[in-house]
Amino acid sequence: MIFKQLFDKKSSTYTYIISSGKGREALIIDPVIEHTEKYLNLLKELDLKLVKVIDTHIHADHISGLNELAKQTSCSKIMGERSTSEVLDIKVKDNEKIKIENIELKSIYTPGHTDCSYSFFMNDRVFTGDTLLINGTGRTDFQNGSSYDAYDSLFKKLLKLPEKTLVYPAHDYNGKTHSTIENEKNNNPRLQVKSAEEYADVMSNLKLSNPKMMDIAVPANKKGITLQDLENR
Questions:
Q1: Is residue 29 pLDDT above 80, yes or no?
Q2: What is the pTM of this model?
Q3: What is the reported pLDDT for 13?
């Protein structure tokens, strides 16, 4: 299997390229538009055909490369069925399968950070978007977020996965690349709560400022902005 984890320093975003091997189909999760050429060059180097691109949710801190990649490769654009993106080809439901050559992901509806947040489970790993971070969890104070929904997504879905499951989030701000469900259960400070009410209280006291790109990124990601759109602004 080919598995590449790429990092955008500006937004601390992780992007994932997945394929079963050289010369085969590939998919990308959570691309950043500024790195489109880098992704395409890597795909070419590995002789991969990009057939699907996935965003875990409508991002507020960067502009997604989803539509630009589709423009340049004709790949299918995928998000969860609650997404408000206007450019999707496929909207997946909870527990739906996403397949490419010898690779299968299962969608898991994990609202809370946003109401359109999905995670994607593949064999020994799960791509958690902003729902579950390494030693943290996604904020719940905008884009129809809900601390109570997040609690259910975490405790009734993600933390029910096998403990050795590798956790690959959409962001990390401390240089960590991955974790495990077991490690997050035992060491994530936001998960050491006994009720949804207690979790909601923790989240309501974070007092975080809005992402700097929020007013630009959210509408741009709904519209499916491309590099040409950015140049014409």
A1: yes
A2: 0.96
A3: 97
What does residue 216 show for φ and ψ, rounded to 5 degrees? -95, -45
Q: Kindly state whether residue 27 falls inside one of the protein's structural domains.
A: yes
Under a CB-based contact definition with an 8 Å cutoff, are residues 118 and 131 in contact? no
**DSSP code of residue 204:** H
Q: Where are the alpha helices (DSSP H) in the chain?
A: 36-45, 66-73, 147-155, 181-187, 196-204, 214-223, 227-231
Range of 108's domain? 2-209
Residue 221 within any structural domain of the chain: no
| Per-residue confidence (pLDDT) for residue 212, from 0 to 100 | 82
Burial readout 58-83 (b: 16 or more C-beta within 10 A, e: otherwise): bbbbbbbbbbbbbbbbebbbbbbebb
Secondary structure element (H or E) that encloses residue 23, with its range? none
Evaluate whether residue 48 is within a structural domain: yes
The number of domains in the chain is 1
Residue 215 lies in a domain: no
CATH number at residue 132: 3.60.15.10
Side-chain-side CA neighbours of residue 59 (13 Å): 28
User: Please, which residues have CB within 8 angstroms of residue 57's CB and are 6 or more apart in sequence?
Assistant: 79, 80, 83, 113, 114, 116, 117, 118, 129, 130, 143
| pLDDT value for 210 | 81
